[in-house]
Amino acid sequence: MNIGNIGDSKIVMEYTEVLDKQITRKQHYVPKAYLKNFSVSNQKSEQVYVVFTNDENAKLVSIDNICCRSYLYDQIAIDPDSKIHVFAAPNEIENSFIELEGEYATIISKIKNALRDSDEFELARVEIDKLRQFMSSLLFRNPIFVHLSNYIIDTQYKNDPDHIKHVKNIFPDVPQNVYLSMLANEFLKMNIAPDVGLFPRALAETMKESQLCIFKAQGSVFVTSDMPVVNIYGEKDGIEYDLLGMPITPELFLAFVDTVQHIPRIIIIDDNSVKRMNSKQINKEMLISNRIDLLSYIDFSIDAKKEDDEQFYQLLHTDKETALKQYEDMMSSKEIKYWR
What single string gives the DSSP state of each residue in 238-307? Predict the structure, then answer.
């Protein structure tokens, strides 16, 4: 094990082979704690109906096998001499989500139980804060942001020969790609980890003055996706609103609404409103529901791409077009999976 310091960050390098029993290989960017609330009942294992991109047929799939990637949050370098896989910090970022996911599951269960018997529920301030944190974290732990983070480190490092020379002088025995994987891990953790991540903490902070409410569907269902958090903004009765939310069950949609008007904690909405809200989920890699006919619950006449808000990309100090172009360029050349 080698230990070095860069600025105030300690870098610890562990040499270990990739073994499933040692490291969690399959890492969910939409946690099973979220997906299980959309599962089909009376199944031995948790399953959902999924419609994938460019397919109109719903498939029944285990939640173990969707919204996940192998070693998504792990930075792995290949030692140039021994060819051993070097993990920057095995499962460090993956494990940082566990506590928040458990807290989310407990709070959602509390809401579901309360609304089963009435149209009222009460949450403590700390529970509302946890919902903000979970929603903010869910947005930025997506593979797009993970890969963009890695891409930024890769391009900036290559374009800074003075820094490369500086690193070689400080760590003469550390292969450049191993150092780079450590740097990428620290950068990604600083971006998305729920306890220290810049982006989820910043977004949660912007939501502090927003009002929490639950939209409740009657006779219809909410459809979710591999990127369930959506932004809906507009005007009603002359009052502007900005809503950040996501479906939490087929019947319930959790929202933080920024508006000057006081809104009720529970809002019952009709089928057409549910369909319009579900339209925000299209143009994703997969649509997810507990209904095989999930497409019938979406209003496809609405151009979700045109209405998509770019505020999330502004947090990256870029615009959506530039960010996605960078992502496409990176993926068309070679996805950064193993640092070589």
Answer: TEEEEEEEEESSSSEEEEEEE-SS---SEEEE-HHHHHHHHGGG-SSSEEEES-TTGGGGS-TTS-HHHH
